[in-house]
């Protein structure tokens, strides 16, 4: 899941049901954001018209927004990986090429990876200075903070 | 030729003729107090209508106007650093401001959360329903009884636990059927929940229709894939889906829909 940011006490997770709910919302959102064609059902008579993710994006956005609100209400943290895939302003799931543009800007020490949401124009800027042999590891990803096995 | 002669005769600075004044209801003759050479006190005295305020004449000028500063321009609105309501701009220090929220107007204009017609395909939502069933299986599983059957078979205590989990669960993608409703049009609507808001379930039916079903005065049934169903009383459920996750429910007096 990767949603936790704190150390775990025993084997049980205190807010397990809420995490499961957020997980479900996240997966549903991703599903609608990355659609290429509509799945054909056995009983449908018409030829399948492709449903692209651009028309289901409002739904994907709605689920992301729900997920964020659930987290906010229960005061739970979202993993930074999930936050990076979500537009902060309109809660769209950011899929490169489909719903966002990723560009690397800047030179030398000021290189940034800029992700621009195609729907609201909101931007995320992440530093992209690290060298290939020593990449920047997020706090959550560091081995000493491993929580769920 | 004669016209231009006339205009030059009349001239730019000659006072308005009497006919013109009468016709336009022109500016009243401006009587200036001969002693103080001031216009305002006399004007207020004349124009303040005693029906509007109880203050008359000189008192009106003395109490309400004399010595007060009148703002003809709102300095706060026109300050150069004021970027309230603008999409992005600069703050007082000259730094670029980045908006962090979507306004309600933008939400409506960009139609950020409305589902378009092409997307209301029941087949799509069947896939969502599959995911929902898996989610439910995981949620309602216990050590003794994996799968949602724990809800229906277990003893009282376990059942309470399961019901509590259900109340906090998410219903997007659930197969919902309207069993009873105050408005008979809604009874019998069966479909998969696309969106859930504070008052309403937006459901996609088998014939690709998006139906908006209000929660109040309505009783729903949720069907699980492994059989079995549970009843939802809409009146008790009229909260935002995200709020339900952390809400303590207070029972309402009746479950009657009337």
From TrEMBL, chain A:
GO MF, any single term: metal ion binding
This enzyme's EC code(s): 3.1.26.5
Protein's UniProt keywords contain Lyase: no
Gene: RPP21
UniProt-listed Pfam families: Rpr2
Gene3D superfamilies, alphabetized: 6.20.50.20
First-level EC class: hydrolase
UniProt record similarity statement: Belongs to the eukaryotic/archaeal RNase P protein component 4 family.
Biological process annotations from GO: tRNA processing
Cellular component terms (Gene Ontology): nucleolar ribonuclease P complex
InterPro entries given in the database record: Rpr2/Snm1/Rpp21
Species in which this protein is naturally found: Coemansia asiatica
Protein name, UniProt field: Ribonuclease P protein subunit p21
UniProt KW keywords: Hydrolase, Metal-binding, tRNA processing, Zinc
Automatic annotation (TrEMBL), chain B:
Family annotation (SUPFAM superfamilies): Rof/RNase P subunit-like (SSF101744)
Keyword hit for Nuclease: yes
Annotated region (Disordered), positions in chain: 17-37, 77-100
Xref: InterPro entries: RNase_P/MRP_Rpp29-subunit, RNase_P/MRP_Rpp29_sf, RNP1, Rof/RNase_P-like, Rpp29/RNP1
Pfam families the UniProt entry points to: RNase_P-MRP_p29
Regions of compositional bias (Basic and acidic residues) in chain numbering: 79-94
A molecular function (GO) term: ribonuclease P RNA binding
GO CC annotations, alphabetized: nucleolus; ribonuclease MRP complex; ribonuclease P complex
Keywords: Cytoplasm, Endonuclease, Hydrolase, Nuclease, Nucleus, Phosphoprotein, tRNA processing
Subcellular location: Nucleus, Nucleolus
Known role: Component of ribonuclease P, a ribonucleoprotein complex that generates mature tRNA molecules by cleaving their 5'-ends.
Family of the protein in this entry: Belongs to the eukaryotic/archaeal RNase P protein component 1 family.
Name this polypeptide is given: Ribonuclease P protein subunit p29
Protein source organism: Coemansia asiatica
